[in-house]
Amino acid sequence: MSISGECFCGDVKYQVEGNLRDARSCHCSRCRKAFSAQASAYAVVEPKEFKWVSGKELLTSYVGEHGFGLQFCKICGSTICGILNGEVHGVTLGCVNGDPEIELGRHIYVGSKASWEQIPDGVPQYLEGEPEGWSNA
Ligand SMILES: [Zn+2]
Ligand SMILES: [Zn+2]
Q: Ranges for the CENP-V/GFA domain (predicted)?
């Protein structure tokens, strides 16, 4: 399938020719800050199926010590994608346009969720569980 995504201001756009995989939401305190939200909402992409359509020069990156990082639009601040060792690793579901035909499959680090968050029943929850490539993020 063909999936598009863009930031809040619309200057950064990308296209995925393929499927998103392993959609997950991490409730750790670091993801809350990185996503400015109650949790992350993120899915993995195949790097060769991902391409920037516009605004690549507007991206700014924050990379942690394990080579995993996030890229943001420096105009509007949207968290757009995750990178691992300089290559795109996944996309934030909030910036995906339309229906990517995937749902969050697991909620992780619910043991450290914010006191104000209520997680709905009926979704797989894990007290911990760092997904691959998401080290300390
Ligand atoms: Zn933007
Ligand atoms: Zn996290």
A: 3-117
CA of 111 to the centre of ligand 1 (A): 32
76 C-alpha to center of ligand 1: Å?
4
CATH 2.170.150.70 fits 2-112, yes or no: yes
Compute the C-alpha angle 54/55/57, nearest 5°: 130
- Residue appearing with tokens 């760092």: 130
What is the pTM assigned to this prediction?
A: 0.89
Instruction: Give domain limits for the chain.
Output: 2-112
CB 52 within 8 A of CB 14: yes
The per-residue pLDDT for range 39-80, each reduced to its tens digit, is 999 999 999 999 999 999 999 999 988 889 999 999 999 999
Which residues have CB under 8 Å from 48's CB, separation 6+? none
How many A from CA of 99 to the centre of ligand 2? 24
Bridge partners for 69 per DSSP: 63, 83
